[in-house]
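A quick aside before the break. I want you to see a complete sequence-to-structure record at least once, exactly as it would be stored in a machine-readable document. Don't worry about memorizing anything.
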Amino acid sequence: MPDDQVLEKSALHQRAAAGMLKNTWIVGSSGYPLTDWVLVPYTHQNLTWTQHAFNEKIGEVQRIAREAFARLKGRWTCLQKRTEVKLQDLPVVIGACCVLHNICELRKEEMEPDLRYELVDDEMVPDNSIRSVTASQARENIAHNLLHHGLAGTAFF
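That is the input. The structure line, written in tokens, reads:
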């Protein structure tokens, strides 16, 4: 199932639809649509300098997230394959893995090199990649501020 369809079926999407993510941006890849709460890179050809700089910053945030998920999946091999857990129990199992993983990260516990996990991204750009004119303008403003006001770096996001 494409990323945008998975998102639309998620609890996160339900929270956003209920207005619980106001004034919040979640960075997504180009496999997700631009919405009032999902900020994605520009995907069209011939980007301006501003758009290119924005995509560079989005890429930095995505790299950090990918590395975190790779460590999570490397540490908890049950997340690397199809699970035997009942579907209704899956959020609890994933949540437990995330909590334990965060404890390991906070304690700066090293991972064995042989536990490294390589994530594979098979993203597909959705047919309707811009679902909000407001979000499109907000992205333009963010991109402009990143380039022209020296607001570079992941701390901005």
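Two observations worth writing down. The chain has a mean pLDDT of 86. The CA atoms of residues 45 and 52 lie 10 Å apart. We'll return to this after the break.
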